[in-house]
Amino acid sequence: EGLSDKEIEELKKKWKKTITEAVQVGRMAGKLPAGIERLLGELIEPKLNWREILYNCITQEIPVDFTWLRPHKKSFSTNIYMPNILREKIEVTVVVDLSGSISDEEVREFFSEVVGIVRTFRNRVSMRIITHDHKVQDDYVFDLATEDEIKQIEIHGGGGTSFHNTVEYLNEKGISCLLYTSDAADELDGV
Questions:
Q1: Residue 174 CA to its chain's centroid (Å)
Q2: Using only C-alpha atoms, what is the Rg of the chain?
C-alpha cells in the first residue's frame, strides 16, 4: 500500500531477477527441487544470458601460464615479486547459418556478435568463420582477426539448410570451441 505504479514495477523486476538467479544457481549446483522450475516457469520466464555463458566458456579454454621474465607490475610497490600471467591463444570457430530463412537483420546480428568476440578477446583468439546454407559456402581463418577484416567478409548463401554437411565438415576440421549461429527454423536433418 502507498506505493506508486512505478515502484511496484521496480519491485516486481527486482524479485523476478532474484528468483531467476536463485533458480539458475540451484540448477547449476544440481540442487533445484523437482518441479520447482516448472512451478516458477511462468513467473520468471528464465532466459540465460548466452553472451555471458560464451564469455565464460572461452575464458576457461584459454590456456594460462605464469612467467617470471616480466614480473607483475603491481608487485613492484610491495617489494615482493610475483609472476605475470601469460595467456595463450585459443581458436574459436563460428558457424553462421546463411540459409534463405535468415533475414538481413539476423545476419547483421550474427556478425555483430563475431565482432564482439574480436573486441573482447583481442590478441588471444584465433578465429575461423564458416558460413553455410545447404553446404559449407566459405571458410575464413584469421590468426588475430580485426573488426575491419570481419566487416569485409563476403557472404554467400540463401539456399536451403542442411546442418548435416556442415557438421561433417566440422568433424573433419577437429574443432574445439564452437559458436553456431542459426535461427533454428529448420530441422537438424537427423544430426
A1: 19
A2: 22
For residues 184 and 17, give the distance between their C-alpha atoms in angstroms, rounded to a whole number: 27
The 10 Å Cβ neighbour count of residue 36 is 13
User: Could you report the per-residue pLDDT of 33-48, keeping only the tens digit for each?
Assistant: 767 766 666 555 545 5
Neighbours of 109 (CB within 10 A): 12
Sequence-distant (6+) residues with CB within 8 A of 58 are 90, 92, 117, 121, 125, 177
Rounded Cα distance, 70 and 101, in Å: 52
**63 DSSP 8-state letter:** -
All three cell numbers of 90:
585459443
For strands 64-67 and 178-181, give the pairing: unpaired
Lowest mean pLDDT among 5-14, 67-76, 127-136: 67-76
pLDDT for res 139: 92
- pLDDT (mean) for 17-32: 76
Closest CA to 94 of 80, 109, 83: 109
The C-alpha cell 502507498 sits at 2
